[in-house]
Every structure is written in structure tokens, then in C-alpha cells.
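## Example pair
The file below holds two records. Each record gives the amino-acid sequence first, followed by its C-alpha cell line.
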Amino acid sequence: MSPPIDLPSGLVTFVFTDIEGSTRLAQMLGPGYRPVLREHRRLLRDTLAATDGAELLTEGDSFFIAFPDATAALTACLTAQLALAGHEWPTPDSAPKVRMGLHTGYAEPGDGEYASPEVHRAARVAAAAHGGQVLCSAATARHADPLPAGASLIDLGLHRLRGFDDPERLFQLVAPGLERQFPRPRTADTVTHNLPTQVTSFVGRETERADLFRLMQRHRLVTVLGAGGAGKTRLAVELASGMVEAYPDGVWFVDIATVTDPGLVAFAVAAVLGLRPEPGRPMVDTLVEYAAARRMLVVLDTCDAQPAASAEVISRLLAGSGGVRVLATSRESFGLPGEVVWRIPPLSVDPRPDGAQSDAVALLLDRTMAARGGRQPDPAETADLRRVVQRLDGLPLAIELAAARLRVLSAGQLAERLDDVLSTLDAGREDPDPGPHGRDWTGNQQDTVDLVAAAAGGVPATAASRAVRRSAAERHVTMQATVTWSYRTLGPRAARLLRWLSVFAGPVDLPTMQWLLNDDPLDPLSVLVDKSMILAEPRAAGSTYRMLDPIRAYAARRLAQAGEERTARERHVAWSTHALERAHLGPDGLPVTLSLCSLDPLAGELRAALRWCATGGSAWAGLRLAGGLDQWWRERGLAREGRLWLFRLYGRIAETGEEIPEAELAAAYHMHSLHAGADGEVAEELRFSQRAEAAARQAGDAGLLARVLAGRAAPLIDMGQFDEAERVCREVIDWAHEQAVVADALFAVFSLAELLWRRGALDEAAELLGAARPIEAGRPVERGRRSVDMLLGMVALARGDLVAAHEHLLVALRSRISHGFHGRACDTLDAIAVRCAAGGEPHLAARFFGAAHATRASLRSTPGIHDEYWTARQAEVRALLGETVFDATYTEGSELSLEEAAELALRVEHPDLAADSLRFDTETAPPVLP
């Protein structure tokens, strides 16, 4: 710009922008970076500086602009991001990712510049953003009225900006065409960690914790070495939890066991730290750059799952940052410079000098109490308990197995059995591995070691690593030989039951076993419980039975060796399908209102069944399973997982050439479209909606086509095309009436009602919903959502009828909570917050707003079409209470669980029906959004 610059004064909105990773981009593009930078500057000047903003500074890839109006500033940023995203760059990797930050405050210019802390706050807001993201402060959000067309602000909560003591509430600008999903803001928040929460008590290990703590104080890489089941992970987490305050940049736990490809180890670590891949750059480089100036502890668990890749990431992290320390658990060392290997010892089996029980006995006592329903073992059993832990060499997993046996045996009986077991274990080290039914021995000692490794979730040892971990392997054999010996003593029926149960991911009951085997399982099950290969868990409704994971892995290998895997897993898929069908039926076999709560216990089994369908089974069966979880995935914030399973099943179809009926494909594509919409992937949502329509037309099923077309309005609403969405809804509803399938177009009815509510056509919306009530009541898969009551509550709020709003919303909330529709319950909480605000209860309103936002954030869902309405009503409550009181009350609400918030909302007092009730006060009625 040419001087002189007319700088705004008074209430000024400052905007800072820069390119995320500009140094890396310049290095990658070389001479090609200059034209990219030049084009970036042109686009920003055309969209930012070409408005009424005053450009104060352009340096390198950065802009600093002052605006006299917050709305104009946000509009300019939105236009700039859309221009950058829509521009044709030389290559996709060369597209600059620009982060933008805004803050509004009072400032007066002097000598062509501003000397104000508000400028620094704006710069810190920009520094907290990621490339492609627009962040603004609460002040900007408050003064940006109205927002740009089609745009809204997502409340990201309170954050501490670097250099500022007071927390700042940050908001993200969202609009059609903008990326929505970003890691947490880059702010100077308090020390944090992601260490897993333990569900059982940590027993003993005081000496080991002290030794390991001293090592961690002096060395940057400590590897906890030991056999599977020795307690490496538990000790590492326990130690790290006491060191959180020592690491200002956090303590981060990464489970390498979940990484299936060596190249993804760096991605797993980066994901925990909130980092995103950068185009044209190895993930490990991004990781090292992030860690360079930070002081943090990284706990890498089960590194033996990917030893070489883990070693590379550790080496790069330690070399690139002097403030990073690594605590690793593994069954073999890395051999890296500076590595300190600490072998975890067994639990002490000798009494303490003060006469207290040893750690091993204390653990056995603790677990035995749990196994026996909280009852203390008889004091007369103490001597036998000591014999047990001594025979088990103080190994934690073996002790857990022993405690499970004490459900059906006394300590004396177990001690006698272990005497026999240990002699067999000693012989087992010299003897070969048993055959599939535990009768014939073949192979050699190394076969046993490899089998042990597989049973513990690892891989067979290599020649290069055997010498390094021979001691751990011997201990590993001692623990796993207990399972081998027990299996070797099984008869054919018990051995088969153990193998087949390995296909289940969690506990099963007696009828399930009978269904699986088509045989009475009681006799072989009793044998397995006696040998502690199956754990019996008594419950009021009947006992359930489960395997520990090492035994499950052992049994799964036996299943494959016996040639029974396909048959058993197909039976498991059939059982999973049947379980899904039962969730929709009552005791009389008739359809009942679908409760997503009934699907929660099935999730692990259904995932196991889906995994088989996607890798070795039928994709058609997998699509049926996925369809049963359709609403569950979205209501639990797992829409992305649902999309991934569908992609895997599509790949299985392509791999096998399996013929899938068009109707099944249409249903799958429609479900995929809904998942994509819930996940903010609008383009994918529209693409699969179109595929679903084509497949449904090919199938010739009018009801199916109506369901697909009824969802067509969703992507239009997501893109802000409300008039077009309303037209589509009306066309679908009219067509459904003609085809006598109006019940299948219910989603279009609800979408149309929302659109009518949005533009103030309240009478038409109420009439439409009244006609839809019997249709909703007749559809068991949908009536638990009580969408009619929810939307009638919204209409009543817009009319200022608090009595009707209260009644409709509480009905909707009660149903949604009781039937497990968590995402939709958040919308209802927001609506009840509005009802409370209009009824003179702003503190309750703030709490409900906070609870709804916290749950919605945990589910990674968005408010959808109601977003502007919630935001406007929330702003009114904030203005009424004041910033400090609102933030405190809002935070109280965010700390409530969804169930706690719903319980509080259901206790909200019914509005007074007196003549002076707010129901009849049109002046206080909430305004209707245009």
C-alpha cells in the first residue's frame, strides 16, 4: 500500500497471518518457492488488504493488518482461505497452508504503528493456529455480529496464550469450503499427559519404582526389558504418572502394539502429540522439529511389536532434542547409544523385613478378593498362598491366572496342582511343543520359544536377537508353559471349545457357547475353568466366561493349526449378525424401540467379526453388520471408524469379486454418506449420496430410494444451500406420497421442519411435525430419537411458549438419553439451555451450554443447522452474566458427564402457568433467526 496509511483507532481488529512450515516449503520447492510466495501475497492482498483493512507489515510470508470492524476482518479471512484453497498451485504439495489469527481490542495508532498489548495478543492467537485454520479471540467473536454468510464459530475452550497470564477463549471459524478438523491449538496450556487410567490397584514394586526413577533422572533413554506378562507396562505407567510435573511439555504414552506397519510408528507418536503430516516431508522430521525446543517424556510401550522402526524414531528424537526423554518397554533392547537397559525383576516372594506380606502375596491377595466378590481369603490359606507365588516365581500374569483359579479352588488345592505343574514345566523346556490337540510332540525347543512369543502377542525370535533376550525368553517359557501344559491335558471337546472361543473378543455366556458349538458346553467348560484357561465371572443374570489375552492368542494359533479358523470365524460372524437382530427385538420376538445402549456391549465382537469379513470372509456379511451399527457409530462420535470399515469392505469386494445386491450397496453408500456428513467431509458425503441413489434406482425399491433421497438435503445444508435443500425435501416428500412410502422419507420431513424453523415458518413446521408423529411412532429404529418432540420444542422456543418447549424437550431428552442417542442428546441440552435462559435461569443455561459443548467435542460432532441459534443464545447469556461468571458456570457444566447433565436438566422446574408467565410475555420471547 502507498503511504500515508489511514490506521483505524478505537475498537480495532488485528489480523496476523503466516504460512505454516514456510521454511520446509521453501527448502522443498527451491527456486519454485518464490512464485508460490508471490502468488500467496497477491491472493492475500486481493482478499485481505483490498478490503477496508490497513496493511501495516508484510515480511516474508507474514501479514499484519488492522481492521476497524470485526465482521469485515473475519469475512476477509474467510475469503482469503477460500481463495488459497481454490487456487491452482503448481503441485498439491506446493499449496501454502496459511494460519490466521484475529483479536479485537482498543488501540490508538502512533507514528504509523500500534504500541499495544492487543497486538501481541493477536499475534499469539495466530501462533496457536494450524495451517488452513482461522482462530479468533473471544473479543473478536463477541464483536463480529453478524458473522459472514454461511459461517459460524466453534468454541475451542479456554487456552493460555504464551506471554499472557489470563486464559483466552479461542474460537475457530468454520464455513463451507474450509477445513474443519485440526489438532488442539498450539498454546501454552498447563502440563498435561495421556497416561491410561488403571482400573485395578497397583501393588508393591516400591524398590523397583525407586530404582527406575533414579535411572530416568540420569539417562535420556531407559528401556524396561522383560517377558510378556512381567508387568512392564503397568510399572512404566505408574512411574510416569508421578513425573508429570517435571515435564512442562507433557508426558505422552504411545502403544506401539497397535501399529501394524513399521512406517507408521512416527505417525503414532505424532498423533498423540497432536501433529499433522506435512506435504513432502517425512513424518519423523516433523516430529523431531516439534520436539526440538520442548521438555517432555515419551513412554513407548510394547516396542517389540516394531523394534527397528521404534529404534529409529527414538534415535531421531533424542538426537534432535536435548529436552526429550524416552521410557520404553520391550522384550528386546534397541542397542542404541546411551540406552540403559533395566530388566524388570519378578515380584518379591519373601516376606518384608517388617513382617508384612511380600509383593507377590499382596498381589495375589488383592486379586483373589476381586475374584471372590470382595471376600478376604481365609487366614488359614496364607501359607498355601505363599507356596503358590513361590512356585510361580512372582510373575504378575501367572499370579493373575492363579487368582482366577481361586474362584473354583482353595489355595491348598491350587498349591498342590502347581507342584505338579511346575515339574511338568521343567520337563517342558526340554520337550517339544504339543500338537494341535495336546497329544503328540513335534519340533524342538525353539518351536516352544516361538510359540511362547506368539502367545504373548509377539513374533518368533530371530537368530540375531536370541542371544540378547535368552534370559527373558526363558522366563517367558516358564509362564507360557503353564498354558501349554494345561492345553496338553485337555480332552478333544475341551481343547476344541478353547480354540473356538478364541474368535470372541470379550466375555461370553453359556448359551453363546452352546450356539457356537451346537453342543452342550458345560462339561468341557468346567474342565477349562478348573485349569484357569477360562475365567468364570459370576453375575446376577448368569456367569460369563472370558480368556486372558495371552491364552486367547495361544488358542487362536491352535485354531489355525487345526484347520478350523474359517468355520469358527464364520460362526462368529453369524452369531454377531444374530446378536444385532436380537437387539432390535423384544422377548416376544417383535420389534422394539432401538436402544443404542444395547449395542455398546456388542461393539468389540462386531469389530472382530467385521475384521474377518474384511480380510477373509464375506463382504456382504460385513455390510450387514456395518448397517446394524449405522446410528451407533455416529452417536458415539465414531463416524470416521464407520467410514474406514466400509472402505475396507469395498476393498474386499474388489478383491474377491463377490456379487453384492444393488439394494445392499445402496444402503451401504447411504450409510457412508451420513457418516461422511457427520465427519465434516461434505464432498464425500455428496459423492456417496449420489452413488446410493444410482444403486437404489437400479434395485427398484421405492422405499429404499425414498430413504436415500431423504438424505440428499443433508449435504446441501452442510454447504449452506438452504433454499435448494428445502426444494429437495419437498420434492422427496411429494414423491414419497405418490409412491405410498412416506414413512421412508421421514428424514426429509425432519430436514424440512428444521429449514422452516430456520426461516421462521413456524406454523407450517408445527403442522408438518404433527403429521409426522404417528409415522415416527411406527418406526422402531427411529422413535427413540424423538425427533418430533425435539423439533416441536425448537418451534415452541421460537414462539416464546416455554411451557410447550419445556414439555417437548424433556420428553426428547429423556428418550434420547435412555436409548443411547448421545449426539442428539447434546442438541436437546442446548435447547433446554435456551429454555432456561428465556425462563430467567441464566446460570443453568450456561451450565447446560458447557455440558453440551464438552460432550459434543468428545464425540467430534457439530451442532449442524442449529449452530447459529445456539451461538446467538449463548452470547445473550454471556452478556447477561458477564464474562467471568459465564466462563466459571460454563466450565462447571463442561465437567459434567452427559448423564449427569441430563439428570440435572430433567429436574428443571416446570414453567409457571400463571397469567404473568413468560409463556405469554412476547417481549421476552427469543427472536427467530432469519
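Second record, same layout:
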Amino acid sequence: MKKLLLLLCLVAGLAASQNAWAQIRGYVLDADNQRPVAGAAVSVKGKNTGTVTNAEGHFELKTSTPATLTITLVGYARMETEGTTNEELRIFLVPSIEELNQVVVTASRVEESILRSPVSIEKMDARQIQQTPSANYYDGLVNMKSLDMVTSSITYKQINTRGFNTTGNSRFLQLVDGVDNQPSGLGFAMGNLFGPHDIDVESAELIPGAASALYGPIAFNGMLNTRTKNPFAYQGLSVQTKFGFNHIGDGTEPGAKPLYDLAIRYAKAFNNKFAFKVNASYLKGTDWYANDYTDIDPNTSPENRGPANPGKNQLNIYGDEVAQTIPNIGRVSRTGYEEKDLATYGVYSLKLNAALHYRITDKLEAIYQGNFNQGTAQYTGSNRFVINDFKFIQHRLELRGSNFYVRAYSNQELSTNSYNTRALGQQINRTWVRDLAGNVVTPDKADATWFERYTAAYNGLVNGTGSKNHDAARSFADQGRVLPGSEAYEAAKDRLIQTRGLAGAGILSECSLRHVEGMYDLSSALKVFNLQVGGNYRKYYLNTGGTLFDDKDKNLTNDEYGAFAQASKSLFKEHLKLTVSGRYDKNENFVGRFTPRASAVFSPTENHHIRASYQTGFRNPTVADQFIKLNVGPIIILGGAPVNSAGLNAYENSVTIASFSQFASAFGADMQKGVPFPQAVANNKDKLVKSNVPYIKSEKVKSYEVGYKGLLGQKFLFDINYYFSEYTDFMINTVVARAKSDILLADGSVNPAAAAELLGADRQLFQLYTNAADKVSIQGISAGLTYALPKNYKLTANSTWINFNLRDADANNVPAFNTPEWKTNLIFGNARLTDKIGFNVAWHWQSAFDWYGTFTENRPGRVQAYNLLDAQISYRIPGLKTIVKVGGSNITNKYVVQAYGSPAVGGLYYISLNFDQLFR
């Protein structure tokens, strides 16, 4: 690789010596009012050379001549002109509807008009990022057509498109400057906790739906491609300071909590050859509270659930999952701790970034970029986890030409202080339990001893405690309980966070990945048609010390590679564009997969475009899907690789969770009627069904799409698409219950001994990774419009309908859809209400739906319909190159839950100052 890079540099250097270098300078002005246009991108066509106009509209760049300049800015028509050194250029840009001349790169991996994209694509550009009323650009993505967003934490929001959403979405690819933004141990991108700050984001492009044909297996549901600002083009000092507050009216003391966000960016270029940039940002605030205390105990009939239920399992209270059915008493659970006393609600995000760019020639550029990120967030997975002081380090080295690139990067995660909140509550509960003689027992005996105390008190065997009284029995069993805020509680909490494995709550992860990829555009050489080819190789290195994966004292790695090709051709005087793509991917543990894509775009006129496409996608199991082996108290999360489950008997000797719930509920009802324990077991054991869970394999999708995008009257942009997708072998989590005794007897009937074990301490729940055997489908329609009104007002509206068709599939054996049937966005604003004042208002609404997640063992929880209203007003101070913005997210302060078990999210209000392009 080093020899190849040196050879490329030598060849490029010789080529550069044949060209004459010249300084081209000029001004870019608004054609309507003759005023300077700041921030316009001026680039040399076919080369990497470019810059951005300053506040006076002036630009300078050095390049070889002759040169064709391309000038672009959102809100103006794209323009090309010949560069000359004879005099200063005066270039006039014609205002135009923003989306008319948008250029995107994600849909086909090459630059093209968004109107002629072969598949649906959405874009948030630099101006929209600046004008978003949301707290940051990432939150503002919710207003994109087809996109779903769920909040687990103020610093962690997860996005998805076209259904099958989760709070940790490994089916959706997020790239930042071409780098996969996932920590390899987690197996999914943590929203924007480890991404760029707004101050350095140039654009974000979204592909809804499968993009595997070009981007590989992770882009199964879609992808987000974020591009940061090039230091050659965006120079100078930018500073953004933001102060805000949240937790208004949520009943907590002392009430509203502050939020701080400070970001600094500096970039400088020297002689148009070398440039660098540095970024630093720090955000600090108080997280949203998960405080839903609904009783969700599956072993209690719904009408008997609630605060008075002695066996209650409250959603955001942890430790009460530990429960037993006591003969002649019934279902009893331990007293748990509220999440607010276990979690780390003081969250922060530190982001440091530096990049060096060197233009070897005007067609060849070398780039090094390093990122250091550290932060705290809550994550709703199979439990509520605190991603605490999590460090994420990235390095990127790239050689980029006008028609190729070679890129290598690494992601390294360092998590030494993260922990499982639910496990923490359970373990604290095991530190203080006393036996009947008043002596504190060891943690391994704590749960059993607590239930013994409860049983003795309830049966009247304890002096001073009345019999048949659940409150009195609980009070006696809880004697010695350490209380939140006490010295003993805090000491136990700190110790258990640092204790990993079954005896504690701590989680260690020092996983990493190494990735190398490249692409070459052969179009200029072939001339007859356009052709791009590329490929990549990736290797994961797992190191969790056995706390997440089965990797203790093992050198656990995972390799995969892929290659793709894409050909396109325009016919009939550019009225028809045909594109075919194909990609082959191979993971060392699974068979190779080929994913083709074909599309056609028919353009009867310049402003009207009809597209149709056939796409395929697939996803290999992530390393977590394969190797996770995590004991979280009531359940063990177990990856689907056969070697991972050896000796646990989870696949071989377990019952389905649905049948166990029916059995336990019917058993409990009999016990309430006074039926003896053995008879209650015998009456209901045949409700148990032995599980038949296959080991995991890849999942696949086929998707068909038609759409139209057109511009009417130069002021009205309309976009609509319909898609239909079929899924097979969809990866799912299924929960089973294992007994020690054989589930079935020799005659095939349910073993009473195993049934009895499933009701007590010998039961072990497993969350298994497997595939749905059934075929399911989705279909959807998305439509959007943008209307440029007089006097700079702009109206954008979009709506999405999506329908999940279960067909003949077993509802208990398909993945969680977790997507509202309807969602709508409406955005109205004016960036230039006056020379100094602008505003923007965004409204989001979505319908109610059932959320299925491993946090509740795949039992549904209702996410109610809600709407969010964001708004901002900005004031420009040209002399100080400053914009003052006052705004808020969810300004009506209606607390909404976006994923069942996750926190309720209220209003966040802020004021920000953005100093831009100082010392440019």
C-alpha cells in the first residue's frame, strides 16, 4: 500500500509540472440586488481545487489554467464560467428554489442532480442546518420525509427509515466523511453522540430503504451520509455558544435544568496546497427521566396489576423483576429502586477533531483526520444501560483524486465505566438482606432469604407482624434495605458499577475495527457509458473481557469483504438514464451474498423526472448478534453462533415465552382460587410449548419503487414515491425459558418437573438471536412539496404512510415493526424576513403504534400519537459576523415517549450565538 501511494504521488506530481498555475480572483453577487453573496462554493470543474466566498463575496484560488469555475450556493441556480487571470471576475448568481440545483453524491456514489437520482434521497444542506429550529442538526433530521427518530437520552437519538425500528439500529448505516460511525462492540451508531458538531457539518444525505447494492450489509434499512466542511473551502474561526434549559414542569426539584453547548472551529489554507482544521465542542446537561411506573408483570393478569400487586414489575423500577410464586401466597416480587437513583443523569458530550489536507496536485489530495469523542448517554436495549464516559477514537487516511479514492480508517471504543442499570438495582438488593436471626447474608443467598422472610411474616410466624398482610410482610423482608442517598447505598452503587460479570453491573468494551476501501470511476476512459468499481475489507477485534461477548481469554475476530460495480447510461438525448449495480459480500461465518440494483429515470422535460427501481439488500449478523453472551439478571442475552451457546441447553431444552406466559398466568389464577401447587401445575402444564429456534443466518429484502420528482413554475417542487418490500430470514430476538429437567417426557408430553422448575429459581430466561421463518412485507407512500412563496417565505410539507403486512406469519415469530403508520412534517420559515431577521417553525406529528422491544421481553407497549412543535427566530449582526438565535424543541412542552421504556421527552429551550468566519 505504501509503494502504491508513493507511485500515485510521483505520477501526479509529474503531471502537475506540465500545467501553468495562476491566481484567479473575483466577486460573487446576487443578480437581483447586486449585493455580495457570502458562503458560495467556488470550485474548479474536474479538480479538487475550491474555496468559499467571504462576507464581501470575494474569493481567491490558485489553479492550473485554463479552468472552468463552478459556483453553487443553496438558494441560487448553479453556474459555470471560465476563469481568467486578466481581471477580477464579477459573477452574478440568480436566486432559485433551493432544491432545484441540489447536487447529491450518496445515491450513486458520484455527483448528480437530486432530481435525477435513481432512488429516493433527501438532503439537509448547510443553510437548512443553520436554520433548523431543533436543538441541533441531528434532531432536525426528524423533519425529513420517511425518517423515524426515537430518543433514549438527551445525547442519544436513533434514526431509521421504512420500518423495523429499534433503539440500537444495526440495520441502518451512518457514514461521516465516508467513515462508518459505529462503535464495533455496540454494533450500531450512537446517534450523534460520537458524530460531528453542527458547526462543522456541510450536509447530510438520507437514503430511505435498502442501499446494500453500493454500501454493503449494514445499509439494510437505509443510510445517512454526513459530510463535514473542507478546510480549503471553509476557512476562518467559527464559534458557537448555546445556553438552554429543560425539565420544565416535570415535577422534579429544583425544576428547570440548564444545558450548555460550546463549539469552536478553526480552519486555514496555505497557498491552496495545504490546509488544516480543528474542532472542539462540549455539551453538558441533565438527561430526560425514565419514570414510567406501570406494572407490566407478565405473570399477573392485567386486571390484577398495579400498585397493590405484591408481584408487580414496574417499567422503570429495577430489582422488582426478581420474583417468585410462593405456595399459598402467590406471586411476590422484590422491592426495586427507581431509575433516577441508579442512572447517571448528568450527561455530556466532548468532541475533538483535527484534519490535515494536502493537495499533491490540483487533482490529487491526501487527507488525515483524527477524532476523539467521549460522552455519557442512556441506552434502552434489553435493559436500560448507562453508556458512561464512553470513549470513541477514529483515524482516517485517504488519498482522493478526481475519479478515485483509497480510504483506510479505524474505530476504537474504550468503555470502562459503563453499566447495566437494571442489574445494578438487582445487585444492590443483594447487599443488605438479613436472615431471620438478623444477620446480613451473602449476595448469592440474598434473594432466597428475602422470600423466606416474606413467607414467614405473611404466614404470621414473626412476632409483631400480622398474618396475611402483604404490606407487613414486605416491610419485614425489607428491614435493613439501603436507601438512595445514604452512604451505604452510594458505596454499594460505586462498587457494583466497577464490578463486572455476574456479581456486578459494570460493562467493559475495548473493541475495534479496521477498514480499507477504494473506488475508481472509469467513465472518462470508457466514454460509452459510466462505470464505477470498488471494494472494501473489514476486520473486527472483540475485547470485552467476557462482560458482553464470549471473548474472555480468547482472540475473537471477525472478517468480511465486499466488491461492487455500477454502470449507467443516458439515452435518447438525456431523456432516459439507466443504472445497474451489483455487490458481492462475504463474512467469514456466513455464505456470500450478491445484491443487485437496477433503476431507470425518465425525464420528458428538464423539470420532470419519473423513476423506477428494483433493489435488493441483505444483512449479515453483527458481531453482537453472533457472540453476545450477557447475563442481565432475569435473562441471558445469547448470540446465535452455535459455538456461543455450547453447554447452555438454551436452544435444545426451552419453551416459548408466549406459552410460558399463558402457563404462568393460568397457574397463578388457579393458585388464587386455592388450588394446591402440584395440582395447579398439572392443570396447566400442557400450555407449555417446546421452542424450536434455529441458529442465526443472514436476512434479505427485495424492494420495488416508483416515484416522480418535478419542478412546477420554478417555485413548486413536488416529490412522491411508492415502494413495496418483501423480507425473508429477518433477524429477530426471541425469548425462551429453560428448565433444568427435560421439557418433554419420552411420550412427548410436558414434564411436570420441568413445568414446576419454570415457576421457580431454576427457570432461566434467554433472549436468543435467530431468524423469522416467515415472509412478511411492507408498502408505503411518501410525498413532499416545497413551495417558494413571495418575499422569501418558504413552505415545506411531507407525509409518509407505511403498512406492515404480516401475511400468514406467526405474530410471535417476526421482527418488531416499531413504526407509526402515519407521520407528517410541516415547515414554514423565512431566512430573510428582513436584512437581519429570519425565522423557522417545524411541526411533526405521528400516529400511535405498539412498540416491541427486548427491554420488555418483546411484549408490546403503546407509544401514543404525539406532535412536536419546534421554532426559532434569528437576528444577524453583520458587523460582528454573528447570528443570535432563540428557539426551542417541543416548545409546547408536552412530554412524549418515543419508545416504550425510554424516557418522556419534554421541551428544550435555548439561545445561541454563532460567530462565523472570523479571521477568514
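Notes on the second record: DSSP finds 13 helices and 52 strands in the chain. Residues 1-20 have pLDDT under 50 and may be disordered.
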